Amino acid sequence: MDAIHTFAREGELDNLLKCIESGVSVHLQDNKGRTPMHWAVDHGHLKIDEALLSRNADVNAKV
């Protein structure tokens, strides 16, 4: 699991934004095909969801 997935799972908005600003893709998949959006939705982190959506995260990504 990459840092962006951990930050999405844990609801760490500031760190997630730093990852994105440094060039990490919001579409990055972990070893099971999950994106940061999957992790944020699964753990109820609305602010993370909003941040990812505003950066064009794919809401239709399949695992």
In words, what does this structure look like?
This protein is an all-alpha fold. The chain has one domain: Ankyrin repeat-containing domain (Serine Threonine Protein Phosphatase 5, Tetratricopeptide repeat, Alpha Horseshoe). Helices cover 52% and strands 0% of the residues. Helix 1 (3-10) packs antiparallel against helix 2 (13-21) and helix 1 runs parallel beside helix 3 (36-42). The chain starts with a helix and ends in a 9-residue tail after the last helix. 29% of the residues are buried. The mean pLDDT is 95. ANK repeats lie at residues 32-63. GO terms for molecular function: fatty-acyl-CoA binding. Keywords: ANK repeat, Lipid-binding.
Average pLDDT for all residues: 95
* First and last CA, distance: 15 Å
Encode the helix/strand succession as letters. Answer: HHHH
Quaternary status: single chain
Write the layout of secondary structure elements.
Layout: H1 3-10, H2 13-21, H3 36-42, H4 46-54
Helix pairs in contact: 1-2, 1-3, 3-4
Brief synopsis:
By secondary structure, the protein is mainly alpha-helical.
Keywords:
Serine Threonine Protein Phosphatase 5, Tetratricopeptide repeat; fatty-acyl-CoA binding; globular; 63 residues; Ankyrin_rpt; mainly alpha; 4 helices; Ankyrin_rpt-contain_sf
